[in-house]
C-alpha cells in the first residue's frame, strides 16, 4: 500500500501516516509518480532533495513558504470578495446572459 499506514481526512485535506520503516519522502515519491499519469500532481516541500526527485518526473513542486504565501493571498482575495458582495445586493438577473433574460421576459409577458 505504498508505505501508507493509514489516511485521515481533515477539513478536506488527506493526511497520510506512513508505515513503520517508511519515510514521508518515500511515500511522497511513490504517490506522486503513480498519480502523475492520472492528474496534475503538486508536492509541497521545502526539502531540496525531495524537490529535485519529484521535479524530474513531471510532478510540480512548491516550497512550503511559497504555498503558505499563495494560501494567504487566496484568503485575502476571498475576504475582499465577500466584503464587496455583502455591501451590495446580488440578483439572479444580474448574472443571466442577455439572451436568457429576453427569453424569460417573453415567457412572462406572453
- The radius of gyration is 23 Å
- Helix fraction? 40-55%
- With strands numbered from the N-terminus, the spatial order across the biggest sheet is 1-2
- Mean pLDDT, as a whole number? 81
- In whole angstroms, how far apart are the ends? 63 Å
Strand content: 15-25%
What is the total tally of β strands? 4
Low-confidence stretches: none
SSE class? alpha+beta
H/E element string?
Answer: EEHEHEHHH
Number of helices: 5
Shape: elongated
Largest sheet features: 2 strands, antiparallel
Structure commentary:
By secondary structure, the protein is of the alpha+beta class. It is built from five helices and four strands; from the N terminus they run ββαβαβααα. Strand 1 and strand 2 (13-18) form a beta hairpin.
Feature tags:
110 residues; elongated; two-stranded parallel ribbon; 54% helix; single chain; 5 helices; alpha+beta
List the helices and strands and how they pair.
Layout: E1 4-10, E2 13-18, H1 24-35, E3 42-44, H2 48-55, E4 60-62, H3 64-86, H4 92-95, H5 98-109
